[in-house]
Amino acid sequence: MTNTFTLEGIPVTSELAQQALTDRFNGLFNPLEISAEAFQAAYDTPDIGPHIEKDYKGLSYLSWPFAYRYLKQHFPTFFVAFEEKSVGEVAFGTPGAYYLRPYLTDGSRRTVALVFPIMDRRHSAIKELDGRAISDNCQRAAVKCIATFTGLGLRLYAGEDIPKEEEQRESSKPAPAAKKAAPSSKAATGGTSKEATPAFDGKAALMSFCSANPLGYADEKACQLAIKGSLETLGLARGSDVKDCAGFTNVVSTLMASWIKDNGIKITKADMAQELAKVMAEAKNGVDAVNNAVAAFYAAKK
Hints:
This protein is mainly α. The protein is built from twelve helices and eight strands. About 9% of the residues have low confidence.
């Protein structure tokens, strides 16, 4: 007969689980170490855009197959494990406050455990557990565990909201020297030259899109979050990475495709391709023309 004891209100029914929980609450375990260089390399991993997925709010997260693959390629002895309340039972808590405790380990050493709330796809706490909810959240918790302790994709969690301080720094930067030199170049030649053409301001273009909010998001900030998700989907870190109106239109088209999916609007691939082509065709006419084309698309679909 298995003895049962209670630890901080949690009934524990396994000797292994008893020992693991007792050690954890006492802070007793061999720490798993990851070098600063390995962490920085994972944090700065380029070209993760194709492996980024988005939720219905436009927030971005790393796909779990890519996170697992990266872990095995760069840290082959590491794996994600979960603390257990009893053997095979990984969900702690009570209805509306269920959570998981993932940690990274190599089988003998380990990290501290995270607290990962069990949520539905709308980020609301689940009040009634089932196998699917536990399985889905274990995958999400594993990815966040990998991100937290290796650095892979961690910037996505840092970028779930637009940092106002960074916006202020960007806006306070002086204009590039090339822009200042442009008028004198034009005066010297007596005509218009390519050097005199102002550089495209991708950040300003995207901010104007959010201000116009042609897809009818709840407010300008919600539109900004959605745009940020589209940038990350394309592997771009910030609006200033958009170098021309064609690039701006590509970001907007990516957002349109996500908007259709998130709002459950039924449209054939052929029809959607035509709608996107209409918007892309306006790139040659400038940012305002693209915004107007998106507004017309929204008016027809809402």
